Amino acid sequence: MNHIPLVDLKAAHAEVAPQVQAGFERVLARTAFIGGDEVRDFEREYAEFAGVAHCVGVANGTDALELALRVSGVGAGDEVVIPANTFIATAGAVARTGARPVPADCLPDSYLLDPRAALAAVGPATRAVVPVHLYGQCAEVAALIAALPERVKVVEDAAQCQGATREGRSPGSGGIAATSFYPGKNLGAYGDAGAVLTDDEDAAARVRAIANHGGVAKYRHDVAGFNSRLDGLQAVVLRAKLARLAEGNRARRAAAARYDALLAGLVAAGRVVPPVTVAGNEHVWHLYVLRVVGADRDDVVGKLNAEGIGAGVHYPAPVHLTPAFAHLGHRRGDFPHAEEAADRILSLPLYPQITADQQQRVVDTLAAALR
Question: Under CATH, what is the fold of the domain 245-369?
Fold first, then answer.
């Protein structure tokens, strides 16, 4: 059976293998395993790509979000508003600061954080709101900043949107954002890696210090910190892939447009609801997520997988219904849009190298699974 993966990491590696090999040899020759020129060069290059003044590479995306929250003043006893429909790491990063995550519902069509729901969840203890730029497009940021009291900061979770913009604005521009370079991201490392993005020089310096045991010089510890550093080998991979990221994002957009056309019949028949791109968004299609109608989503995913189609679910349970955050005291029905999405959505294979023939097979298999 010809398997079509959800994400094709082998194809992605094949495109950059010579550059990665040469870069690894540079790092090994210099023994620059922590920090070094490759990390500094990647930080400069990604900041330029992302349209921000500063990029601070760290060990993973969860650390990046925690660090961004910490330098935004979030700590023990605070509350942070997050989308109910996000990967658990968003809530986990909040909890690691000592703050309490406060879920809010998503919009029913784009699944992005509902700004009105987020504002309604703001209380006296709220210190930050975390809009998650989900599936490759940006959530509303400008309206949140305009409506929130000055004491409440916006900290963007940009783990799924490398290269995306909203009304021309990049995540972190004029504020602070965290991103992840987990292997399956649009810009993926060969292990865990992440970064904090900001125009604020002081915030960038504080992130760098906290992530380096609380200081920027050996045996100097100005604040209580921990170890979260981007290593030279991962920086090599990220630099090689960054050179192809804009091209890869264009290929993702073309593949998404093909899916839109191929799925038109199923949409017209009311069997699926396609993904929505919000006006003003430059979508980078980290995932192609549609909603199943009139069928059991898990059964459909099982049928696709059985035929070699690597469909997945992002995500099968909203934060408030996970055992890890049951102590927040919410029940099913509290965030209906997030809960319906968790029950109904599935992700189809999408990556820059996917072919039109592969996409046709995906859609044909989906149609058969829905019969």
Answer: Aspartate Aminotransferase, domain 1 (3.90.1150)
